[in-house]
Design brief:
about 45% helix; Jelly Rolls; six-stranded antiparallel beta sheet; globular; single chain; alpha+beta
């Protein structure tokens, strides 16, 4: 699936805020926190059969949805938002103060005022008609930071879902609604039955959390199961079950290190000797690294370096984005 993309970054600075306000016309009023920085913004939105996802990158600003906008535009979808930085404001008459990377629920059927610094955010839009059975639970959590292990897991799931959409076809995407419903239920109102129903999504998201932590710590020679359990709040049993199909946690860590090495050897700007790259990624010596590398990829590290130097690496073509909606309001009405 290809997202709809809207971008002001190539516009003259004096026209950026005008274009961004036009995108949000009928939905929000936009005020920049600093008019001198311009309004260099971008967004991508995915419209699925029963829900929507968007990402937005903006400078510091305030977004307002007041009584007049509620009357003129009655869209009342819920939206679960997650940002990389703190958000303050109000939903209806409830004050809002959400830490970075913590999701929260808002309703577009209520007054909103959100102020945030320069940030990139992910939004999951849930139309009331499609998620009516969740109404009481979602309404009860409006304006409450979901600052728990399961709440943060929901934020990570939404981010992972957004990353996966471009690789899906329409038929695959149409089957996501049940997964989203199960995950939202399990994370905002957990019960044993709901957690069991959402276990595939929970496990997938936890695997992604582990992968990200491992990738940030590939050069730490002490990286092991103990550190992962401590830093990610998992038991050894949970961790082993997540990576049973990968022949264990240690094997998976080695796999990620080898992938990183392959990427460096494929980079024509990287001139570090092979033995240095191996040492940086905690392999005992060059020979053990070479054996592991060939076992993983079917070729030697020198083969990859030689192919890179001779220009044999093939660059992937960037996908083009579709453009269907002119404003966010039109996108949401299409849900």
């Amino acid at each position: 699936m290809l997202p709809v993309q809207f971008d002001t970054r190539d516009l003259p600075r004096r026209k950026q805020i005008e274009a961004w306000r036009a995108w949000y016309h009928g939905m929000f009023d936009i005020q920049l926190c600093d008019d001198d920085v311009g309004c260099s913004c971008s967004t991508a939105v995915w419209s699925l059969p029963d829900f929507g996802i968007s990402t937005v990158a903006t400078p510091a600003l305030t977004m307002m949805r007041d009584t007049a906008l509620l009357r003129s535009n009655p869209i009342d979808h819920w939206v679960i938002m997650t940002g990389q930085r703190r958000t303050v404001g109000a939903v209806a008459e409830t004050a809002l103060d959400v830490p970075a990377q913590v999701p929260f629920v808002a309703s577009l059927g209520q007054k909103l005022m959100l102020t945030r610094p320069a940030d990139e955010r992910t939004h999951l839009f849930l139309p009331r008609d499609g998620f009516r059975e969740l109404a009481s639970l979602l309404d009860a959590t409006v304006a409450q930071p979901l600052d728990s292990a399961l709440g943060r897991l929901l934020g990570d799931f939404i981010f992972l879902l957004r990353q996966s959409l471009s690789g899906l076809d329409v038929a695959e995407a149409s089957r996501l609604t049940g997964a989203v419903r199960s995950m939202v239920l399990a994370c905002i109102a957990p019960t044993a039955d709901r957690l069991e129903e959402a276990s595939p999504q929970v496990n997938l998201t936890r695997r992604e959390q582990v992968r990200q932590f491992i990738d940030r710590n590939l050069r730490n020679p002490g990286l092991d199961t103990h550190i992962l359990c401590r830093e990610l709040g998992m038991s050894r049993t949970q961790l082993y079950r997540l990576f049973e199909q990968d022949r264990g946690v240690a094997h998976y860590i080695r796999h990620r290190r080898l992938l990183s090495c392959y990427g460096l050897l494929s980079d024509p700007l990287n001139t570090f000797p092979i033995n240095v790259i191996a040492d940086q990624h905690c392999f005992e010596d060059a020979s053990s690294f070479s054996r592991a590398f060939k076992q993983e990829f079917g070729c030697n590290p020198r083969d990859v370096r030689a192919a890179t130097v001779s220009g044999q690496k093939i660059a992937q073509k960037r996908a083009e984005f579709a453009s269907e909606y002119r404003t966010l309001d039109e996108y949401l009405k299409g849900l």
